[in-house]
Design a protein that fits this description.
Blueprint: E1 2-8, E2 11-16, E3 26-35, H1 38-46, E4 48-49, E5 52-53, E6 58-59, E7 63-71, E8 83-86, E9 89-91, E10 109-111, E11 128-132, E12 136-138, H2 145-148, H3 151-163, E13 171-175, H4 179-190, E14 195-199, H5 203-211, E15 216-218, E16 228-233, H6 238-247, E17 253-256, H7 270-274, E18 278-281, H8 288-298, E19 306-311, H9 315-324, E20 330-334
Parallel strand pairs: 13-14, 13-16, 14-15, 16-17, 17-18, 19-20
Antiparallel strand pairs: 1-2, 1-6, 3-7, 3-11, 3-20, 4-5, 7-8, 8-12, 9-10
Helix pairs in contact: 3-4, 3-8
Length: 336
């Protein structure tokens, strides 16, 4: 089978690999679509994603969808050709009591397409993958596998909105309209936000924000409407966070969605104290991917997040488009 391996900085290779074995409690999936994530880009550009450092080649990708190819002898409820997506995380051992309900923070967690462990965890940019049956999420009637490739990043966005608390009836700000920021807009609307203001320096990103449900799209957060009480910083730019903290109303909630640099950054934190701002982090998701699948089936707004579709053999061009094309948003690989 074909698979996309990362061998070093800007060194992607489509290679032949054996089809992974199928265990009794596992499922083989013929992958049809794979979405390129910021972590995939980070490995490609620097060989590092967050604190995970690549030390040997591995298969990238954790946003995937496709169809069941085969099921293990002990698997029930799934059948061949059934359309599915995949929860990329697996945990080992019990979750500490203080983290109850927060499996995304499990101390022993592996993720598809990650170099956080050694040996690294191969990902989903391959024609066939094998995963545990409890990682497989069937698609509801009417949801095709192409749109379902957005389930994982939409799960991330829905978890971020959940971290904000109650947003129903609120005026929400989303700063940074890359794929995750756009999906935060979709998730905030689904959670009942009354008004959504999007912020991005790039005109194409602002246009996409309006297409997925933002009421207005601005170039900056300075001088924002005082009615904004919930903000999502989705760009990972310290200047964006600085503008939000200085401009947002008192007693507001700010959720950090974008990955900030691992090195010290310059942000004025005084407003967190003087305004009693709740500043919260958010990391991946727990079970929100199942809710994401349901939302994708019910609403096609998220389709606007996909900007490019290229074949697996065009992976280098796809990764380049993700970082260099000013019109790019979510770039998707056609695998199956």
């Amino acid at each position: 089978m074909r698979a996309l391996e990362i061998h070093g900085v800007e060194d992607l290779r489509v290679v032949d690999r054996p089809v992974p074995d199928l265990g009794p409690d596992q499922v083989q999936i013929r992958v049809e679509w794979g979405g390129i994530c910021g972590s995939d880009i980070a490995y490609w550009r620097r060989g590092v994603s967050g604190t995970a450092v690549m030390s040997h080649p591995f298969v990238l990708g954790h946003e995937v969808s496709g169809r069941v190819l085969a099921v293990g002898a002990e698997v029930t409820g799934l059948q061949e050709s059934q359309p599915v997506t995949v929860h990329p995380a697996r945990t080992t051992g019990p979750l500490p009591a203080r983290l109850a309900g927060r499996d995304n923070l499990h101390p022993h967690l592996t993720y598809l397409g990650s170099a956080a462990q050694d040996p690294h965890t191969d990902g989903g940019f391959a024609e066939v993958i094998t995963v545990d049956a409890d990682q497989v999420i069937p698609l509801p009637e009417g949801l095709d596998t192409r749109r379902a490739v957005l389930a994982e990043p939409l799960g991330v966005a829905m978890h971020a909105v959940r971290r904000a608390g109650e947003v129903r009836g609120a005026h929400v700000l989303v700063a940074g309209c890359g794929p995750i920021g756009l999906l935060v807009i979709v998730a905030a609307r689904a959670a009942g936000a009354d008004r959504v203001t999007a912020v991005d320096l790039a005109a194409p990103a602002r246009e996409r924000a309006l297409a997925v449900g933002a009421d207005e799209a601005l170039e900056g957060a300075q001088g924002m409407d005082p009615a904004v009480t919930v903000a999502f910083e989705a760009s990972g730019a310290p200047a964006s966070l600085d503008a939000i903290l200085s401009s947002i109303a008192r007693a507001s909630v700010v959720v950090q969605v974008g990955n900030l640099p691992p090195t010290p950054v310059s942000v004025a934190l005084g407003p967190i104290v003087s305004k009693e701002i709740d500043y919260r982090g958010t990391y991946r998701f727990v079970s929100e991917i199942e809710e994401a699948v349901a939302l994708l089936a019910a609403d096609d707004l998220a389709e606007h997040v996909i900007s490019h579709v290229l074949d697996l053999e065009q992976a280098a061009a796809a990764f380049t488009a993700q970082v260099s094309d000013p019109t790019s948003s979510k770039v998707v690989l056609r695998i199956g």
